[in-house]
Amino acid sequence: MQTPSESGNERKVAELIAREMRKLGYDDVYIDAINNVIGRIKGNGTGPSLLLAGHIDHAEAGTMIKPFSGELMDGSIFGIVGEVIYGRGAVDMKGAMACMVYAAAAVKKAGIKLKGDVIVAGNSLEEVSAAEGVLYMLENDKIAADMAICGEATNLNVYLGHRGNAEVKVTVKGRMCHASNPGRGINAAIKASEFIKFYLENYDLPKHELLGDCTTTVLDIRAVTERKAPVVPDLCYVYFDRRFLPGETREKIIAEYREIIKQAQKVIADFDADVEITKWGLALYTPVEEMVVQALLKARSKIMGDEGKISAWIFGTDGAFIADKGIPTVGFGPGDEAFAHTPEEHIPVKHLELATKVYAQAILDICG
Q1: pTM of the model
Q2: CA angle 262, 282, 332 (to 5 degrees)
């Protein structure tokens, strides 16, 4: 937490992690061209390999007080019993990265000979692009494993996945005219506001028992005019966030927006718009029957006394891109995702201790 690492500026924290991995006796450690950091503890090649993965960048500090203090403090102000570590990136997700690094090292220090490799990977650029850092790591660093655990915060429960997220751009068209005589034009900004109201009242979204209901919200509205002169804007861009379920495609979502535009044209005079998807974050769903899920449930039970709650993240993770490469991926991490990106970001110390033990047990059960 004391080493800032906003997206695109991860080099210092990558070097810190690499130094620690080498000090802990990892067999292979390197940092790639875009500051992904990868450490490997080698098995003898006769068993399955496990990837422990997470990102090393964090959101901007915003209004957070002393965001890089890494202060150890009483958690009662956050409703937590016991001590917490406060700081930007604590729960999202440097706490989990530390647990992963030390869990794998503890197995090696104990002298246990593994059958399969353990790979601990911290990727860059998650907060700004979701996919760029992890895809570079998987494709250019040729990271492969039989299964993976994504360490994003799960409150020490086992998560099977999350909804995907599409950023949808709707371009509302108007007609420019002099602002002194607005009736001669079509104000794209006003038409956009009318469409937003219609859209939010009429867009029926899918639901999922585990992953949750799909949601949508407005991210940004931009009227296209430099306003050097008093003119009515002839274009307005509206950006929507649309959370989607596994199996929903770009084509399906585009078709839905085109249909809602068509319906809006029946009730909004002079309304015309185009639609495109500008960002796409994959959905993730790993069936509970998968070996990695079962192994993680058993590891948690051995350390914590029960299997906990099987659930799903509200936000998206880069674990979805790992799974998309054919590596079954499940979630488990310390801390509460509700505090990610907030001024109150923290992680309970007790969670760090338990997560490290569960990761180590999972390594033993899967690779040992």
Answers
A1: 0.92
A2: 140
